[in-house]
Write a structure and sequence with these properties.
Elements (H helix, E strand, L loop, with lengths): L1 H16 L7 E7 L19 H9 L1 E3 L2 E2 L6 H9 L28 H7 L3 E7 L33 E5 L11 E2 L2 E2 L3 E7 L6 E7 L7 H16 L6 E6 L21 H23 L5 E7 L9 H6 L17 H4 L3 E4 L7 E3 L3 E2 L2 H9 L16 H5 L11 E4 L5 E5 L2 E4 L15 H4 L6 E4 L15 H17 L25
Parallel strand pairs: 1-10, 1-11, 2-13, 3-14, 4-5, 4-10
Antiparallel strand pairs: 2-12, 5-6, 6-7, 8-9, 11-12, 15-16, 16-17, 17-18
Length: 503
């Protein structure tokens, strides 16, 4: 470990001495509903060939055991931007929708506000899905005034610039926001009822075309990169893509390219978009001193046609059980790559990491010490990023959350599900009382011996069950999982999904 800390110190020293760019630029690309098995570097049996992501992996740091804090869309975004487990917020289950109000409180530090205090200019381009307050929303969805600015949007949460939309691309309203202002008024209602291309009926801005959203966002991101490279100030670009989440809308160039259907085509389009971003970084002249992270918010969704793809030999969530929404690893184990030519050499990090950890990591890269009231569940990954050899585990344990608000905790090889169900959409579901009545109330899996979670061994290891349950309860009670002063969770306490703490 001593050599690791010496390497970390050397990196920080280098950052403080670089003549033009005192700190690295940071680009964080977040794909939507894309599984571990969709990136060919992570799964040799993948039917997709993600050339750009594979090249990025070969040139960077690959996290082979990376996870989101939750298996549905809003919660991991909260976790990334706050460094805090999503269930500590007022959103205890499910996700936000297009008209919902801001989830992140105004007084909470975000990744953007923290980096801005370290001298960065900050931008968010893409799918927000963390809520904001539409004008006149309290009078009802039909009364929203789209000619007025939104309140409590990204520019009030640390971003100097924002361009994007509020929910998922299948959640109305379909209106672009640029720096708090709608870019056009809705001039029609649109709906799509296709099997994979569907979106809900809702008001649609005059300049909003669903099929053009992904390339539009990436073009704007590339322009931002080229523009900011001319300045001395480092930049942070948060780029949450709306794909390959529904509506699945590959452009003509990618239709039929994968050979396994529209979803596969859309994944290849995402790969190409990442390639465009990497090319823009290279053309900016700051390739070496720019950190680019690519990851996804959760596993592939059944809405993408998982069964149909499996019949063709492609498993979008690889060998892992379950899918989006679940406590099983298919719901939250995700591809994760970090490329930083001047800061790291290519290698794999095989220990468990969580997307909440990038908050503390980016803070450490800039020599910033977190306050007790920020990044409560964020561990600094910099030692693993700069070390080419495997180091001791950085995380004590990792918690994951499902759409139903249920919990699982992983420590080393052991994973405890505080539920008899998947916690989500795969069998056994939380509402399948007939199946659940015949199952133990909790599940324990050895992820080294049984990575597909096929055999529940809770009865054979009561001491491990007890230890992990106690650790999970400690994390809940103390409002944090990292060292520091205890903090309060938001909203009601205890909430209903903590019933297991009473047992």
């Amino acid at each position: 470990m001593k050599n690791v800390f010496l390497a970390t110190a050397a990196i920080l020293s280098l950052l403080s001495c670089t003549e033009k760019q005192k700190q690295p630029n940071i680009i964080f690309i977040l794909a939507d509903d894309m599984g571990y098995g969709d990136v060919s570097y992570f799964d040799n049996n993948s039917k997709l060939k993600t050339e750009n992501l594979d090249r990025m992996a070969q040139e960077g740091v690959v996290f082979t055991d990376a996870h989101s804090s939750s298996s549905v869309s809003t919660p991991p975004r909260y976790g990334i931007l706050t460094g805090r487990y999503n269930w500590r917020s007022t959103l205890k289950d499910n996700v936000l929708y297009g008209y919902d109000k801001a989830l992140i409180p105004a007084d909470r530090e975000t990744m953007a506000s923290m980096l801005r205090k370290q001298g960065y200019t900050t931008a968010g381009i893409g799918k927000w899905h963390l809520g904001w307050d539409w004008d006149n929303i309290d009078a009802g969805k039909d009364k929203v005034d789209f000619s007025k600015p939104v309140q409590n949007g990204p520019t009030t949460r640390g971003f100097d610039y924002f361009y994007g939309f509020c929910g998922s691309l299948d959640m109305a309203p379909y209106v672009y926001i640029e720096n708090d202002m709608p870019t056009s008024l809705p001039d029609r209602e649109t709906v799509n009822e296709g099997k994979y291309s569907w979106w809900r009926k809702g008001p649609t801005g005059a300049d909003f075309v669903h099929e053009e959203v992904l390339p539009n966002l990436v073009d704007r991101a590339c322009n931002y990169i080229k523009e900011k490279a001319k300045a001395d100030q480092p930049y942070f670009l948060y780029l949450p893509l709306p794909a390959p989440h529904t509506p699945i809308l590959p452009t003509e160039e990618f239709r039929g390219k994968s050979g396994i259907g529209e979803y596969g085509d859309f994944v290849l389009m995402v790969d190409a978009m990442v390639g465009k971003v990497l090319q823009a970084v290279k053309e900016s002249g700051e390739d070496g001193n720019t950190i680019v992270v690519f990851t996804t918010d959760n596993g592939c969704s059944p809405a993408a046609g998982i069964k149909e793809m499996e019949a063709q030999g492609h498993r979008p969530n690889s060998i892992y059980r379950g899918h989006k929404a679940d406590l099983f690893d298919g719901g939250h184990r995700i591809p994760c790559i970090l490329r930083w030519p001047e800061g790291t050499k290519p290698h794999e990090v095989r220990q468990t990491v969580c997307l909440t950890d990038f908050y503390a990591t980016f803070a450490a890269i800039n020599g910033y010490k977190l306050m007790d009231s920020e990044g409560e569940d964020s561990y600094n990954l910099l030692p693993a990023i700069v070390s080419e050899t495997e180091i001791d585990p950085i995380r004590e344990a990792t918690v994951h959350h499902s759409i139903d608000g249920q919990f699982t905790i992983r420590q080393g090889d052991w994973k405890l599900l505080l539920s008899a169900s998947s916690g989500g959409w795969s069998a056994p579901t939380p509402t399948d009382t007939l199946a659940l009545d015949s199952l133990p109330p909790i599940q324990l899996y050895n992820m080294k011996d049984d990575p597909s979670e096929t055999t529940n061994v809770e009865a054979e290891h009561p001491e491990i069950v007890s230890r992990l349950r106690a650790l999970m309860a400690k994390y809940v009670r103390e409002g944090r999982s990292t060292p520091g002063a205890p903090q309060k969770n938001d909203g009601e306490y205890p909430w209903k999904e903590l019933d297991w703490m009473k047992e």
